[in-house]
Amino acid sequence: MRMYDIIEKKRDGQELTEQEIEFFIDKYTSGEIPDYQVSALMMAIYFQDMTEKERATLTTAIVQSGDQIDLSQIEGIKVDKHSTGGVGDTTTLILAPLVASVGVPVAKMSGRGLGHTGGTIDKLESVPGFHVEISSDEFIDLVNKNKVAVIGQSGNLTPADKKLYSLRDVTATVNSIPLIASSIMSKKIAAGADAIVLDVKTGAGAFMKDLNEAKELANAMVSIGSLVGRKTMAVISDMSQPLGNAIGNALEVKEAIDTLQGNGPKDLTELCLTLGSQMVVLANKANDLEAARVKLEESLQNGKAFEQFKIFLRSQGGDDKVADDPSLLPKASIQKELPAKTSGTVSSIIADQIGTAAMMLGAGRATKESQIDLSVGVVLHKKVGDVVEQGESLLTIHANQEDLEAVSEKLYDSIEIVDGNVEAPVLINDIIT
Ligand code: URA
Ligand code: CA
Asked: Which residues surround ligand 2, an ion (CB under 5 A)?
């Protein structure tokens, strides 16, 4: 087999065979096929697309390029959730204990964040004592005993994806549905998920800014999942403005605690119930989405989800008193309100710009090596559609720096206030099963 022929075939719009796809992934991972040939193939795929079968084959080949996590010692159907990324996305911190509280095993492998705010592990580490440095045996025992545990990333998962993604990044081929879909799905499958719930974000703060593209990506991933035997569902949710009110690590932990006690922001609570219902159905813990939702709502109301969160923190060394008293979380030295310059209705809060402001405060990493400040960030008091009076606080800045001029400027630039009525954006645009 020759890479040249594979490139030519795809260039001319033909379907690649399983052998051809496995050949190029295999030989590219081992370094036997050079970047320039794979670049040409990526560009051919960008223009010619891939069939559903090719996409599934590509995903499996990427999974097989490295290690796979074996979760077979954990009882039940392991459901993983993946978000295509947003600003102030606190859902994992809430969903993990919430669905665990109704019997869904959550065996979560997580990473540290790059960009706006930290990742799930960074956020959890704002709870004093909490750590993810546990052995894989301990991880499996904890999930069997408590239904939920989080472990740091380890092993050589999907090395082909790492190479492909870096190459696509510099060859203008990131934005291709078959390539994105196989990249995301391969990572979830290699991490051991039996079933997958996808939260595909759309809007100004999302990777897929356009709703139709978001739907196309969601459909592509659901199709790959079903072809490779991992049941997959997707929700298309709004990321034109930040989700919930808090953006910042410890601030988001507090928001998660509020939500688990039934006092969370409406949008964040709704999205967690929507995604959670899918996880419960895929884990066979309810017959349909409505029955699943009733279970989750009960668990929020009767305190079971909140209790599960405390068990989870304790079992990984965390101080569970934080759950009853969030003032024990890291706290910034300065709290400053941002007053509205005019009266009117909030018409937009550009999510990625708010994310940039949070980074300027130190909440996120610019590079993998940066240190982050867990205490800083922003808490919104107004969302799109809310009426505001001149001088009323739009948000609170939590900072450890005196000079907040540039950050305030950035925040003012990202919030628009207009005269007249504005509808709040639709939160759940579509559900794909
Ligand atoms: N996120 C991924 O993990 N892969 C892509 O290709 C794009 C976004
Ligand atoms: Ca949030």
From this structure: 88, 90, 244, 246
Give the helix/strand (H/E) hosting 30: none
Mean pLDDT of 13-20: 98
308 token code pair: 């599960």
pTM > 0.90: yes or no: yes
**365 flagged as catalytic:** no
pLDDT exceeding 70 applies to what percent of the chain?
A: 100
Could you tell me if the CB of 173 is within 6 A of ligand 1? no
**Rounded to whole angstroms, what are the CA distances from 361 to 36, 119, 403, 430?**
40, 16, 10, 34
Give yes or no for residue 412 CB within 6 A of ligand 1. no
Displacement of CA 254 from its chain's centroid (Å): 18
For domain 3-48, which architecture applies? Up-down Bundle (1.20)
- Nearest protein Cα to ligand 1, atom 2: 184
Residue 89: pLDDT over 90? no
Q: What is the dotted CATH code of the domain comprising 332-418?
A: 3.90.1170.30
Query: Rounded mean pLDDT of 3-19?
Result: 98
